[in-house]
């Protein structure tokens, strides 16, 4: 035997030198280990350097979730049930290796990494622990460097057979109190049978034969006294980014033996993930690798048998219903959400464009239907909607949009009684909360907090804890606590220490102590030093931790408060297989075990392990190195495993709250421990260690039964009482509490159902049983007084429902505090009558504060009154579109006032409040818009240098006073901005000038451009076409350009004039018309201007002749020829061509005609028109002759009304003029001057 041991140790030592060591690195948040299927991952050193670690998010029903590796973007608003990192991990999503998770650094409402957990409704894909070279699974955060020594190596059989049971006990006498005692036997006792009654561990080892190449594993123990353990091992190819091999193992004897199940699931099936139903852990779902096939494998008997179902989408994450075991939500890689009501056998699409991790099942007791789903759907970049619908009936007609307007992406959290969301406007975020599924209200922090960022830490006990980064903070956050509805927040602790996780998510050093109501720990930055503080009254007062009197060796420490204290690392475990730096347990109130240091500030060096048995009033050091510590036997025993990068073979057990420790061997050969799996709430007393003897060895699973540590069940006489105190003060959270605990040293097993709380008695209230109300601040003497910005006599909305109201005294009772007030009731709100007051501080806004809305959509107006008798104050709201609404009092407007605008425009909305004492008003200007579809720039294609040209932007659909126009001319660096769609502009430079108009409507900007040729002079002709052209005119710009180009080519061919001197522009509308522009030769100098004008006149005459003779033709289609005619030659160069025919030329011609007719008409009938005043030049008429409006001479010729055009005829002429040349306004001016109203005739 001795020779065999020598050879074995030599061989393993040689392997140890040749190959680097494997140590474990955890990368997943998880619920308590007994509820989870865990995933281990082995990663070579080179892969670890170049690739990001896997991150899987898990949630388990009714369990805590730990996860500093949660992603920032995907997790910023998911409820976080106990994880240090951001969200309630109700998801099974994974951030694949090599893909960096998005950071949550953008301004979103988030759930921060808290140090404690809520109850979770979900259970998902089981967490992942990854084993990597150079880094142990217990070493998941930065720590002091240690030298890595060579451990003992003993060759062991890896045949896959179960090893025989062994008992290991090492005990020697330790030192006396107050130091911890360490008992261990001599090495010769190893492997021998223990003496009867001596504490011992029963162990057995099993190797997973054939899986040595697999570098990932998921381990699941069904728990709840089930004997079934499942292990899924996988070979992950980092080059391919996919799983290429897998093996499924199952044990039904608590891990003594395992059976390979590859044949049952299909020998060619590659499994990627395994999920366990949280409400029925016999139901298991496994996913095949989508690179091979997309399918789910379902088991209803803890993996004894499987059914396979093919699916048509790739599952990225699953979310189980908190109560219905067969209901599942599945999120796909293409952002679609599916639901199944038969545990994955059939799937139905719920919604598309769903944000990752932003979907939630109904919360039982709050949502009316249990199949309700809360979803955040993305509708545009940075904008989303909150949608609520039934899982199998989520059609457009059945969807509810509970939040008025859009929300920020990644900003929906549904957690317990609360729904949170966020809206960012003008760079500042506003946060909203819905309590008990009521309407959303804006979350109110102290007025000048001005938050830059907010993270939801907890929603325990119907109260919200939030970490808020204020305007003057950079690397720290402040802790704020709300009232029950989650609306009004007060400051609890400033400058919390924070950091960022590997995925960019926020980690907040804040920890809730389990089992003690109102007790929390926090690390605060104080004078550039991070110190640990404790509170016993839910954040009303904070104090430093007292250091132990002696170290682990019994040496006096002389650490005096406040200059020296104990500081603890408060991170929750990033690895589900380790305990993490700090641990406490509800079933063991008052006991906390944590990693920390003694000194002036928190440090990552010189770390040791510390324990308190009296809820933080006193501490003892138990180890001078870091250990992972778990509670065993319902909290009655402690298990410690060295936190080291070297292989180990010993563990430590304490039965007396860490005063004495027994060392036990769990393996003959040192093991690189990848993790520890246990079911702490069960009575089976089983622990499973898993790891490797070397990096090439099989997976080793060591089953440890620690039932041999105990000799009987605990009886009544085995317990003693313990009084909870706060530095000698017996009243904690308003009551005196006495707990039961096992007498130290008794080797009896605790019963699961024994009551820890022995008795409680309420105390009389003090000021610290109350927190300062919103707007009040705690002073040095402990009293609450109003903040400088707060008016305690304002805000009388509480008078809206009765004749009296509860007026705050500046205090509000701490939630879950059980103190009793004496008869004076000094701190409780006082009921006061509502006295008449005029309305003051009336404020009007939209929800959520936007000043723009779309036409046809609901706009919700919110009316607030800072001061006044709201019960007797009527509110009138004028929407600005002719509709007004009046309310008898302000209480009727609590849920907002909804209104729909049917037309675009800017509306003046006015709220008017009035009562018998006075009145007040508030106004806002609301922009109602509709989407701008297109814009057309109507402009002349030729303009004269130095003269104004009219440009018009025609927008579809038409808008009223809500558009902004940006006019860009040629190479200008700044645009001309107008609110009207037309502008006059003078071009000073000859040549081609590009004009661009941009139309802005809200966040939408569209544009159109035109090229305008600028010349000193030119000639133009109006053209018309054969009627057949109208039948084929689609009236679009491209068609007009093509026809103009064809006409220009035909004119050039007939006349021999270069095409560069010709421009043809077709006008929109019917009939089809165009204008021909004849430009001067560019090569002719300006000195020959007269000859150039004559040349243009000659060319113009040539074109007139050709057009009159029908020589200008073109072929539109094979059997359709279009003839171009001349409509009219312009009398002057065209300056301002618009979308109609040549307006200025037509206007001049019609003006000459009408002026001539008018002169003739007046001259002919100047003495017969009764309303015309005439002064003659007859020398015999001394005075002017005035003609009466009623003629005196019967023979006088009278003008009859019928001789004048009727109003209808005038309108027809105007319309005809507009259709021809768009000169309706000019025509109207001429006609009304020529034919005045003559009703008196």
From TrEMBL:
<dbReference type="Pfam" id="PF15901">
    <property type="entry name" value="Sortilin_C"/>
</dbReference>
<keyword id="KW-0677">Repeat</keyword>
<keyword id="KW-0675">Receptor</keyword>
<dbReference type="GO" id="GO:0016020">
    <property type="term" value="C:membrane"/>
</dbReference>
<feature type="region of interest" description="Disordered">
    <location>
        <begin position="827"/>
        <end position="847"/>
    </location>
</feature>
<feature type="region of interest" description="Disordered">
    <location>
        <begin position="142"/>
        <end position="163"/>
    </location>
</feature>
<dbReference type="InterPro" id="IPR006581">
    <property type="entry name" value="VPS10"/>
</dbReference>
<comment type="similarity">
    <text>Belongs to the VPS10-related sortilin family. SORCS subfamily.</text>
</comment>
<feature type="compositionally biased region" description="Basic and acidic residues">
    <location>
        <begin position="180"/>
        <end position="190"/>
    </location>
</feature>
<dbReference type="InterPro" id="IPR022409">
    <property type="entry name" value="PKD/Chitinase_dom"/>
</dbReference>
<dbReference type="InterPro" id="IPR000601">
    <property type="entry name" value="PKD_dom"/>
</dbReference>
<protein>
    <submittedName>
        <fullName>VPS10 domain-containing receptor SorCS3</fullName>
    </submittedName>
</protein>
<dbReference type="InterPro" id="IPR050310">
    <property type="entry name" value="VPS10-sortilin"/>
</dbReference>
<feature type="transmembrane region" description="Helical">
    <location>
        <begin position="1145"/>
        <end position="1163"/>
    </location>
</feature>
<keyword id="KW-0812">Transmembrane</keyword>
<keyword id="KW-1133">Transmembrane helix</keyword>
<dbReference type="InterPro" id="IPR031778">
    <property type="entry name" value="Sortilin_N"/>
</dbReference>
<feature type="domain" description="PKD">
    <location>
        <begin position="868"/>
        <end position="935"/>
    </location>
</feature>
<dbReference type="Pfam" id="PF15902">
    <property type="entry name" value="Sortilin-Vps10"/>
</dbReference>
<feature type="region of interest" description="Disordered">
    <location>
        <begin position="177"/>
        <end position="204"/>
    </location>
</feature>
<dbReference type="InterPro" id="IPR013783">
    <property type="entry name" value="Ig-like_fold"/>
</dbReference>
<dbReference type="InterPro" id="IPR015943">
    <property type="entry name" value="WD40/YVTN_repeat-like_dom_sf"/>
</dbReference>
<dbReference type="InterPro" id="IPR031777">
    <property type="entry name" value="Sortilin_C"/>
</dbReference>
<keyword id="KW-0472">Membrane</keyword>
<feature type="signal peptide">
    <location>
        <begin position="1"/>
        <end position="26"/>
    </location>
</feature>
<keyword id="KW-0732">Signal</keyword>
<keyword id="KW-0325">Glycoprotein</keyword>
<dbReference type="InterPro" id="IPR035986">
    <property type="entry name" value="PKD_dom_sf"/>
</dbReference>
<dbReference type="Pfam" id="PF00801">
    <property type="entry name" value="PKD"/>
</dbReference>
């Amino acid at each position: 035997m001795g020779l065999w041991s020598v050879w074995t140790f030599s061989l393993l030592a040689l392997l140890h030198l040749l190959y680097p060591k494997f140590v474990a690195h955890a990368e997943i948040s998880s619920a308590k280990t007994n509820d989870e299927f865990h995933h281990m991952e082995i990663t070579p050193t080179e892969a670890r350097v170049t690739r990001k670690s896997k991150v899987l998010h898990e949630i388990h029903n009714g369990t805590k979730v730990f996860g500093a590796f949660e992603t920032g973007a995907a997790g910023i608003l998911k409820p976080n049930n106990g994880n240090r990192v951001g969200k309630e991990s109700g998801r099974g999503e994974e951030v694949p290796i090599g893909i960096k998770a998005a950071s949550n650094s953008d301004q979103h409402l988030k759930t921060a990494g808290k140090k404690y957990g809520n109850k979770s409704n979900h259970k998902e894909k089981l967490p992942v622990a990854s084993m990597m070279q150079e880094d142990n699974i217990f070493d998941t955060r930065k720590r002091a460097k240690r030298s890595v020594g060579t451990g003992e190596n003993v060759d062991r059989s890896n045949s896959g057979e179960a090893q025989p049971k062994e008992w290991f006990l090492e005990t020697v006498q330790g030192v006396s109190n107050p130091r911890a005692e360490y008992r261990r036997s001599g090495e010769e006792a190893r492997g021998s049978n223990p003496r009867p009654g001596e504490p011992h561990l029963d162990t057995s080892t099993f190797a997973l034969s054939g899986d040595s190449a697999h570098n990932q594993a998921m381990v699941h123990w069904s728990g709840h006294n089930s004997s079934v353990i499942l292990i899924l091992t996988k070979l992950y190819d980092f080059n391919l980014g996919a799983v290429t091999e897998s093996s499924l193992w199952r044990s039904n004897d608590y891990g003594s033996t395992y059976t390979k199940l590859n044949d049952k699931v299909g020998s060619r099936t590659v499994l990627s993930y395994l999920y366990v139903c949280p409400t029925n852990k016999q139901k298991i779902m496994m996913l095949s690798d989508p690179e091979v096939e997309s399918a789910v494998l379902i088991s209803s008997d803890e993996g004894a048998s499987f059914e396979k179902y093919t699916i048509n989408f790739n599952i990225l994450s699953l979310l189980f219903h908190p109560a219905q075991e067969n209901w599942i939500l599945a999120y796909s890689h293409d952002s679609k959400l599916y639901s199944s009501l038969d545990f994955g056998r059939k799937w139905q699409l719920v919604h598309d464009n769903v944000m990752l991790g932003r979907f939630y099942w109904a919360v039982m007791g709050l949502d009316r239907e249990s199949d309700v789903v809360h979803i955040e759907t993305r509708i545009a970049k940075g904008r989303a909607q909150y949608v609520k619908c039934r899982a199998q009936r989520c059609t457009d007609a059945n969807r509810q949009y509970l939040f008025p307007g859009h929300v920020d992406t990644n900003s929906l959290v549904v957690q317990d009684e609360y729904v949170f969301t966020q809206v960012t406007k003008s760079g500042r975020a506003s946060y909203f909360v819905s309590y008990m599924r009521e309407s959303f209200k804006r979350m109110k922090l102290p007025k000048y907090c001005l938050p830059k960022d907010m993270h939801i830490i907890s929603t325990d006990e119907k109260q919200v804890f939030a970490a808020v980064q204020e305007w003057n903070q950079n690397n720290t956050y402040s802790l704020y606590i709300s009232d029950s509805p989650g609306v009004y927040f007060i400051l609890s602790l400033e400058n919390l220490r924070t950091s960022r996780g590997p995925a960019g998510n926020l980690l907040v050093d804040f920890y809730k102590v389990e089992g003690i109501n109102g007790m929390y720990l926090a690390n605060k930055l104080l004078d550039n030093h991070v110190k640990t503080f404790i509170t016993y009254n839910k954040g009303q007062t904070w104090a430093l931790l007292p250091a132990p009197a002696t170290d682990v060796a019994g040496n006096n420490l002389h650490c005096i408060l406040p200059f020296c204290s104990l500081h603890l690392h408060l991170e929750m475990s990033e690895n589900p297989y380790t305990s993490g730096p700090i641990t406490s347990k509800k079933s063991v109130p008052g006991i906390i075990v944590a990693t920390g240091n003694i000194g002036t500030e928190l440090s990552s060096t010189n770390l040791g392990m510390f324990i308190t048995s009296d809820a933080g009033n006193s501490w003892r050091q138990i180890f001078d190195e870091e250990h992972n510590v778990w509670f065993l036997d319902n909290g009655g025993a402690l298990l410690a495993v060295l936190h080291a990068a070297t292989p180990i073979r010993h563990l430590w057990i304490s039965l007396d709250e860490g005063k004495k420790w027994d060392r036990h061997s769990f393996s003959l050969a040192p093991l690189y421990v990848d993790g520890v799996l246990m079911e702490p709430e069960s009575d089976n007393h089983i622990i499973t260690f898993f790891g490797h003897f070397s990096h090439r060895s099989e997976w080793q699973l060591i089953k440890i039964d620690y039932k041999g540590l105990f000799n009987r069940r605990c009886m009544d006489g085995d317990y003693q009482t313990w009084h909870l105190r706060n530095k000698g003060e017996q009243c904690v959270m308003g009551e005196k509490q006495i707990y039961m605990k096992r007498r130290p040293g008794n080797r009896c097993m605790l019963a699961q159902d024994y009551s820890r709380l022995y008795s409680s008695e309420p105390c009389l209230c003090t000021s610290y049983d109350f927190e300062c109300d919103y707007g009040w601040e705690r002073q040095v003497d402990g009293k609450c007084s109003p903040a400088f910005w707060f008016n305690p006599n304002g805000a009388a909305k509480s008078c809206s429902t009765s004749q009296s109201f509860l007026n705050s005294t500046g205090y509000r009772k701490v939630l879950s505090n059980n103190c009793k007030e004496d008869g004076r009731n000094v701190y409780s709100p006082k009921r006061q009558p509502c006295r008449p007051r005029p309305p003051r501080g009336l404020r009007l806004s939209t929800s959520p504060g936007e000043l723009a809305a779309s036409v046809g959509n609901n706009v919700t107006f919110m009316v607030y009154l800072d001061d006044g008798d709201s019960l007797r104050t009527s509110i009138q709201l004028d929407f600005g579109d002719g509709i007004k609404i009046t309310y008898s009092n302000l209480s009727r407007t609590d849920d907002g006032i909804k209104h729909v605008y049917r037309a675009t425009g800017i509306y003046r909305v006015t709220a008017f409040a009035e009562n018998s004492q006075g009145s007040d008003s508030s106004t806002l200007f609301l922009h109602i818009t509709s989407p701008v579809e297109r814009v057309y720039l109507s402009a002349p294609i030729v303009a004269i240098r130095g003269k104004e040209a009219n440009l018009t932007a025609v927008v579809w659909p038409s808008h009223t006073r809500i558009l902004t126009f940006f006019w860009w001319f040629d190479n200008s660096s700044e645009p001309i901005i107008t609110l009207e769609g037309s502008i006059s502009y003078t071009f000073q430079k000859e040549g081609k000038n590009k004009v661009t108009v941009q139309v802005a409507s809200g966040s939408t900007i569209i544009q159109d451009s035109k090229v305008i040729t600028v010349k000193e002079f030119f000639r133009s002709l109006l053209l018309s076409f054969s009627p057949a052209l109208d039948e084929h005119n689609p009236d679009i710009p491209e068609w007009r350009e093509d026809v103009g180009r064809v006409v220009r080519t035909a004119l050039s061919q007939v006349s021999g004039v270069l095409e560069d001197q010709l421009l043809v522009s077709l006008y929109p509308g019917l009939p089809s018309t165009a204008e021909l522009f004849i430009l001067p030769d560019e090569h002719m100098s300006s000195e020959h201007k007269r000859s150039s004008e004559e040349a243009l006149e000659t060319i113009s005459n040539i074109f007139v002749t050709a057009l009159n003779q029908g020589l200008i033709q073109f072929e539109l289609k094979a059997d359709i020829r279009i003839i171009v005619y001349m409509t009219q030659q312009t009398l002057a160069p065209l300056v301002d061509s618009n979308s109609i025919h040549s307006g200025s030329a037509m206007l001049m011609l019609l003006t000459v005609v009408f002026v001539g007719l008018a002169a003739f008409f007046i001259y002919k009938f100047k003495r017969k028109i009764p309303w015309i005043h005439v002064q003659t030049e007859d020398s015999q008429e001394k005075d002017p002759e005035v003609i009466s409006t009623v003629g005196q001479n019967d023979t006088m010729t009278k003008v009859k009304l019928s001789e004048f055009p009727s109003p209808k005829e005038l309108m027809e002429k105007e319309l005809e003029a507009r259709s021809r040349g768009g000169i309706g306004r000019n025509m109207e001016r001429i006609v009304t001057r020529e034919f005045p109203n003559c009703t008196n005739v």
